[in-house]
Amino acid sequence: MTTEAPIRPVTAFRLRALLAGDGVRTVALTLGAIALALLVTAGLIALAGKNPIVAYGALLRGAFGSVDRFAFALNKSTPYILAGVGVALCFRAKVINIGGEGQIAVGGIGASLVLLLAPAGLPPVLLLPLAMLAGAAFGALWAILAAWVFIKRNVHEVLCTLLLNFVGVLLVSEVLRAPLGEEGAGFPQSPLFPRAGWLPKLIPGTDLHMGILLAVAAVVLGHVLLWRTTFGFRLRVMGASRPAAAYVGLSTARSTFAVMAIAGALAGLAGGIEVSGVHNRLIEGFSHGFGFNAVAVALIAGLNPLAILPAGLFLGFLEAGALAMQREIGVPSSLVYVIEGLMMVFVLCAVGLNARNRRV
After folding, report:
1. Cα separation of 164 and 85, whole Å?
2. How many degrees, rounded to 5, is the angle at CA 292 between CA 318 and CA 157?
3. pLDDT tens-digit map of 108-124
4. pLDDT at position 101, please?
5. Other residues' Cβ atoms within 10 Å of the Cβ of residue 163
């Protein structure tokens, strides 16, 4: 005879809280913000001489209209989710890491080095993990460099991570103009990776690669790390009060190095996935905008690793739909960026309003 396991008091309390208050209010505010943003952007589309209803139809078709478009949107979401988890962990510890773009760029270099220089004939089961590990290692080292300047030279971490973004992106351009560049190519890019270095497709016949599975795993591991480990507890204590953390004997410097390394590794992994899963080569500017969008995703998710999954998907599908809207009905590209920005601002306002209400 089997007996049902009793619901633990903590689980039951969280379920009641979700159903009764915070969860419902958060979803309602977010949906209201999206509806308001759609209303405002409809006015902008009308001012541009386009029909908003037709434009939104194109947006929906671009995101959900076919299996290929759905796969494209999932691929767009993958780097935002991976880098967003790292940003959320850093922000939880009050370490302001906005260097995701540089870490993604350098991670792409690391993965490309392995994929281009590895001995021919290396099977994918060895080549791809080595490339992903190299991407993660390069991203982690890039983030640790920023943490070292922050801790040892007392330079604000925002400045360190921001400036290293430019260096990382320029580094991609430099390696493509000499050691990794393809001779005779009209655009700065590397030769195609060997077929064994292409990230496998999740659905045959589509572009959806296996990176989305790694992104989901990162979300789950980020949640466990933050809420189920001693290290996560240290991060949360640091975020609440650095002086208090130092007073009770927590090494804030060591924790800062560690959380930056984790964030850099996730961003570097995103760079490796992008070059091997989407482009199948290293190209100039492949990481453009990824890091700052990851910051927006982390903030939309309220720095909750589990909530980063829907937040990243929201941004990925929004971008995929906006690009289709531009292609199909000719909405100016600048207006597409305005629409995306307004959507994010409205959602962030809703998240901030919800947080303020919780404090009251």
Report:
1. 20
2. 160
3. 999 999 999 998 888 88
4. 95
5. 15
